[in-house]
Amino acid sequence: MKKRVQIMVFLFVWQWITSCAVATPFQRSAKLDQVEMTPETIVILALTEVEITGTSSDKSSFWERVTSVRKSLDEMPGYLGGAIRKEILGPRAWTLTVWTSEEALEQFVASREHERAMREGAPAVKTSKFYRGKYAWKEMPIGWDVVEKLIDEEGRKE
Prior knowledge:
40% of the residues lie in helices and 30% in strands.
């Protein structure tokens, strides 16, 4: 009986630990002062959730590409800010980026750096979900609980 309780406690703790996540704070673009913004300005919120699997090499390549894309964001026209979150021991990760327009977001998606990340990081991605929406700038950033809800309820899978 004692062994069974220990196993149940271990499984509970393991489940809790694997769902814990760490996140970067929302970082506003270094070029934000060059954009005319009011609290009421409508912005585009882009969310991504990925489930990462594969070899250690695949995962390492994925995170290298994520780092490279993050470093390039401030150079992208229309980028206002963003954050990233990852489960500590689990397979899921999320991105949150905010853009001045759909066109700015599309330009980023088509950029060389993002295309490279998609190509080289793809072997590590088991599933992916995406969400886009329009919000007032004053609503940014949203909480990670809202991110998960939006992706679960309104996101599209690819």
